[in-house]
Amino acid sequence: NAGVMQNPRHLVRRRGQEARLRCSPMKGHSHVYWYRQLPEEGLKFMVYLQKENIIDESGMPKERFSAEFPKEGPSILRIQQVVRGDSAAYFCASSQSALGTGELFFGEGSRLTVL
Amino acid sequence: AQSVTQLDSQVPVFEEAPVELRCNYSSSVSVYLFWYVQYPNQGLQLLLKYLSGSTLVKGINGFEAEFNKSQTSFHLRKPSVHISDTAEYFCAVKDTNAGKSTFGDGTTLTVKP
């Protein structure tokens, strides 16, 4: 399967724990985007990364959230000291370039539940 | 910056009836426009996109959309829906010279028998 791979699909954490969500983009794609979908809401942009660089993090909460996309390996969205309000589906998408047609290819999401 | 407004949060419709899902956007720069579909517990899939040229674009599963620059709209239509079209539909806009896409809040299409 050459699509966008996210894991874990489901993650349960207690308040105060850390959550790490991983995303492997489609083969040949070097641009990764993270979106959050709260229950009954739309997708909200969080961060856009290229290999080893954060291009746009305007949608990331200032505290507890961080993202990286190392030269080797998947992109990781990290949430420290989770709170109940972090419960959501986190979607990763990838694209071949930023200036192309812009079509995004999405993974199936990681659903975080904070108890 | 761009924004997207999907005018209907829920659209119930009977099978084989036509449907229109409305989308308006605002942007100060040139944009590309997209419609994505999300089935329960899945990621989003591209239905269709407008890049340039003909304002009527056709997508998968019999859907089409019309770009109206003067009204800044990109409404999605299907002449006859099926039960299997029940899903969440998202309109999105992307600056032609930047990376991220901005999504609307989604429209839940429910097709009833």
Explain what the structure shows.
The complex is a heterodimer of chains A (115) and B (113). By secondary structure, chain A is mainly β. Chain A contains no helices and eleven strands. Chain A has strands spanning 5-7, 10-13, 19-24, 31-37, 43-50, 53-56, 65-68, 75-79, 88-95, 105-106, 110-114. In chain A, the strands form two sheets. In chain A, strands 2, 4, 5, 6, 9, 10 and 11 form a seven-stranded mixed beta sheet that branches. The mean pLDDT of chain A is 92. The model of chain B has no long low-confidence stretch (mean pLDDT 93). The A-B interface holds A 4, 31, 33, 35, 41-45, 48, 55-56, 91, 93, 95, 98-99, 101-109 and B 6, 32, 34, 36, 41-46, 49, 51, 90, 92, 94, 96-106.
Short description:
The complex is a heterodimer of chains A (115) and B (113). Chain A is mostly beta strands and 115 residues long.
Largest interface: A-B, 26 and 26 residues
**What does the radius of gyration of chain B come to?**
13 Å
Number of helices of chain B: 0
Going by helix content, strand content and strand pairing, the class of chain A is: mainly beta
Main pleated-sheet profile of chain B: 6 strands, mixed
Low-confidence stretches of chain B: none
Count up the helices of chain A.
0
Q: Largest sheet of chain A, described in full? A: 7 strands, mixed
Distance between the termini of chain B: 41 Å
Share in helix of chain A: under 10%
SSE sequence of chain B, one letter per element: EEEEEEEEEEEE
Taken from the alpha-carbon principal axes, the silhouette of chain A is globular
Strand % of chain A is over 45%
